[in-house]
Amino acid sequence: MTEIHAIGNIAIRRVTEMRGPGFAPDFLFPDWDPSVLQQHRKLMVPDCFDEAQGRFVASIHTWVLKTRHHTILIDSCAGNDKERPALPRFHQLNLPFLDRLAEAGVSPEAVDYVCCTHLHADHCGWNTRLLNGRWVPTFPNAKYVFSKAEYDHWSGPAGKEGFTAGVFEDSVLPVIQSGQAELVGGEAAIGDSLRFHPTPGHSPGHVAIELSDGGDKAIFSGDIMHQPLQVYRPDWNSAFCEHKEHARASRRWLLERAAEDRSTVFTAHFANTSAGHVIRSGDRFDWRFV
Ligand SMILES: [Zn+2]
């Protein structure tokens, strides 16, 4: 049973699609230095790093927010039945994600907003499901909110090639066609307590999503970071970060902002509880799971 976090009057819980050993460190981080893992062994082993396999443990999950008026999902995992030959972990899945959502008290009809930090395969997959051979919106009453820069990028040639081929067509286009998509540019308020903040780099239109209620703050960080070690090495990009300098600047912004505001950071892929606090001392940062 996942714990429920409270940010002001908003209840937040994680619903997990999958969790397990993922990438080898020297693949995920081109600048990998094994001594950093040794320095932070207590934080990383065994929850976030599988020593037997020599791989990071990754979680793929959605964050479910219940506000006074709305049920909101942040990032929608990889989805079932998707054709992802270049991404074996996400290829032709058949996972009970909707059952787990139901266990968390959420029916597809009850979801008011689905917000995607970006449009990679593991962040927008459950936007749609396969019904009688067609991709249809999984959440029939939801508004799906994306950044316009992200939409512009993936609706072009980038959406048809490489490891993201097909994602736009099967997981984004159907919700555009159903009239359920809302594209936002720059800083934008969503509902009464969320705000999109552009954090380009990992992908061109990546956003962090800030939440504020009753004096409490949170940031949903998407793929600005993949593993806790990046708190200690904010200069480490993942192999999937498209614009290296922008990605580093966005990571630094996130860490500074989270430390200054005492925000709870809700990550997209950290294992353990997936959420934590950033503590700053001078030019360095520290991570505590909550
Ligand atoms: Zn991701």
TrEMBL record:
Residues 59-269 form the Metallo-beta-lactamase domain. The keyword Metal-binding applies. InterPro entries: MBL_superfamily_lactonases (IPR051013), Metallo-B-lactamas (IPR001279), RibonucZ/Hydroxyglut_hydro (IPR036866). Pfam families: Lactamase_B (PF00753). Keywords: Hydrolase, Metal-binding, Zinc. Belongs to the metallo-beta-lactamase superfamily. PANTHER family: QUORUM-QUENCHING LACTONASE YTNP-RELATED, QUORUM-QUENCHING LACTONASE YTNP-RELATED-RELATED. This is MBL fold metallo-hydrolase.
